[in-house]
């Protein structure tokens, strides 16, 4: 970006224009460094002076940010000395492709009823393992209690990294309240520099209180695609399937598929998960027109 300006009077003495950029702007020198322009005395008011504004490519996918360049004029000409024009506003738009992508179909859930499901994907195979810490606030539970974080990982040995599914439920706090917001924060760590500085913005989850919906946390009705009984067991579950299911999967709390079954027909079925360790799991049912997830607990 080339910026031009002129002084609308003839200066009787030399003028030094000091340009002070914000931290992400380069003015023909080091990023964030102050630059100066020297203007000789007695130049006509139509004389134009220019400088360049640049932003180095940091290889980080990020939102557009607003930066500024401040001006200060110094001169023995007291009609100019100390003049501070309005700062130049510069919007820096990113040109990097995200290395980590989050796919979310919906963000509105009911306390203790609905399960938020989303997927995370790496766009390229990492040179080193990538770990993503997901931190819920006290409104959300990801399988280890309200506010307790989980960490999912992508291995450098994966030539084509796959999608990892992540689940969260809103905590029933017993308080009658309007729609409120839960937040998921993401921290990404890796020895691969293309991923270590990667950002994944906060995910806002819009939570409806049970008391305002007239819905309680009883088992789902036959209108649901699947019902699971009981919600807590040693791993033996009965599933009532009310619509043709192309794929039935069970995920653990860090998004790994631990069981899968194809082409499940309508009717009652037994699901044996007794081989799994104690913990929170999510049963998902998918076909061309629906996808649902139901949390279960295995206790041994």
Rg, Å, rounded? 29 Å
The coarse silhouette is elongated
State which percent range the strand residues make up: over 45%
Low-confidence stretches: 213-222
Distance between the termini: 65 Å
Main-sheet strand order equals 8-15-14-10-12
Task: Determine the mean pLDDT.
Answer: 84
The percent range for helix content is under 10%
Q: What is the subunit organization of this protein?
A: single chain
Q: What summary fits the major beta sheet?
A: 5 strands, mixed
Helix- and strand-based class?
Answer: mainly beta
Overall number of strands = 23
The ordered string of helix (H) and strand (E) elements is: EEEEEEEEEEEEEEHEHEEEEEEEE
């Amino acid at each position: 970006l080339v910026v031009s300006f002129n002084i609308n009077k003839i200066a009787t003495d030399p003028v030094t224009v000091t340009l002070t950029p914000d931290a992400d702007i380069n003015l023909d020198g080091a990023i964030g460094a102050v630059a100066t322009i020297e203007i000789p005395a007695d130049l006509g008011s139509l004389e134009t002076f220019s400088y360049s504004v640049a932003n180095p490519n940091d290889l980080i996918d990020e939102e557009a940010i607003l930066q500024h360049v401040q001006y200060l004029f110094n001169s023995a000409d007291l009609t100019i000395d100390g003049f501070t024009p309005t700062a130049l506003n510069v919007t820096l738009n990113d040109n990097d492709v995200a290395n980590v992508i989050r796919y979310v179909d919906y963000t509105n859930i009911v306390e203790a009823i609905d399960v938020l499901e989303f997927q995370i994907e790496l766009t390229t195979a990492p040179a080193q393992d990538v770990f993503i810490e997901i931190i819920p606030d006290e409104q959300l539970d990801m399988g280890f209690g309200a506010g307790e974080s989980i960490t999912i990982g992508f291995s450098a040995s994966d030539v084509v990294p796959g999608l990892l599914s992540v689940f969260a439920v809103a905590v029933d706090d017993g308080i009658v309240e309007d729609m409120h917001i839960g937040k998921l924060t993401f921290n990404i760590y890796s020895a691969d520099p293309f991923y270590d500085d990667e950002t994944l913005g906060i995910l806002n989850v819009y939570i409806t209180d049970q008391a305002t919906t007239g819905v309680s946390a009883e088992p789902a009705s036959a209108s649901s695609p699947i019902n699971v009984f009981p919600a807590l067991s040693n791993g033996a579950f009965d599933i009532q399937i009310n619509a043709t299911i192309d794929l039935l999967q069970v995920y653990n709390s860090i998004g790994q598929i631990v069981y899968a079954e194809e082409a499940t027909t309508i009717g009652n079925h037994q699901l044996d998960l007794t081989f799994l360790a104690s913990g929170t799991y999510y049963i998902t049912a998918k076909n061309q027109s629906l996808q649902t997830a139901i949390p279960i607990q295995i206790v041994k």
